[in-house]
ABC-2 type transport system permease protein (Hymenobacter arizonensis), 463 residues
Amino acid sequence: MSQLTLFRLLLTYEWWHFRAARGLVLLTGLLLATGLYGIYYGTTEIERQRQHLATLPELTHHNVAELQQKFPDSADAGEIGYYHTTYAAHHPDAWAALSLGQRDVNPYYVKLRLLGLQAQLYATDNVNPVKSLSGNFDLAFVLVYLLPLLIIALSFNLLSSEREQGLLPLLLAQPVRPALLVGAKLAFRMGVVLGLAWLLSAIGMGWAGVPLDGRVLLWLVFVTAYALFWFGAVLVVTALQRSSAVNAVALVGTWLLLVVLIPGLLNLGVAAARPVPQGLALTIKQREEIHAGWDRPKAQTMNRFFAHYPQWRDTATIRERFVWRWYYAFQHLGDVSVEPLAAAYARGLQQRFVLVEQLNVLSPAINAQTSLNALAGTDLPTHLQFQSSARAYHDSLRAYYYPFLFRQVPFTHADYAREPTHSFTSQPELPTAYRGLGKLLLTVAGTFALGLVLMRRRAISPR
């Protein structure tokens, strides 16, 4: 009998055994249902965000209509800038539905007025802290954190069950090489798990309406490589030839180590190695600087402002008790006073991300989650890019209003339509994803190499 025929017979045997094990069938079906819920949740959340973002222009239009009714056609631009609200919007990529990433913890829009930027930039809506602690659910979560548990459940007794039932000596007495036996068992389980992962990925991509570009293949390769890593871990544990109970404890311990313990320790270590200023401290300092602006001499405030904007130095000296251009000048100076803190905050977050990316080889789970977020355009660098675009938008608003304020030009109803607008759409961070895939493939190769070496050095014993 040829080795190919034996391989097919062994696969058939594994199929019969799988069908008879109702618990495993139920567990596989449960993961399928969980994956479908993850797809539903992710697509629903992104659709909710899209609908919310779609209302922002209407809210701005409604605000403009109110201002046009409240103020005459030739109004003071200072009053318009104080009451007028507009939005910096972060539109999601279609892939975000499969891997929500930072979109469930960071704001995806910023409500802006002509006032100081920093307090507005870091203002967020109140959220349920319990929900923030548990996080949101998506397909990436199912594939990264739950799929390994299915692999463990299917494979912890790869050979040990036959040994404990006394069937292994009978199998080895047949013209079956131990390597062929282990290979057939692993191949069947890989087929089940990868078929499930690919099916969920295909359903998720279709449901989310992702574009059929190179990211489809990259996602599938990443999911496949991540599953293969866990099968490599199964091969290593199987090669040690322990009991089923010991195998289960070893594999679950590996899952806890790589998915829970190392990520937690890495988070603490990175926070200690790359400290960042607190956002709350930044907003407090800005607020204190703005409040102090009321008590400083106007000439001192304006001279500090003109040092940054000398083109307005020739405007009329302020003699009134209150004038809008002075008010917006010390509002901006409040932002200027915390620029080093704001830059250090963004730089610190970026450095943390870089350090995590360098160290995530210690945990394939972190590597996979980081890479899938990068693929979907929902990682931290994308959020920082959105914040940078919001700052640039606020600068453009100030540049638009300053001629009205400093030249004392009346603001007409027609001027609303010429006001700058903002739009930012996530883009994939493909270099991050490619680096993550490279590290994952090396990890898979190393794990399987270790498993094969152990299998060769420790001959499979029937007892």
Summary: The first helix runs from residue 3 to 20.
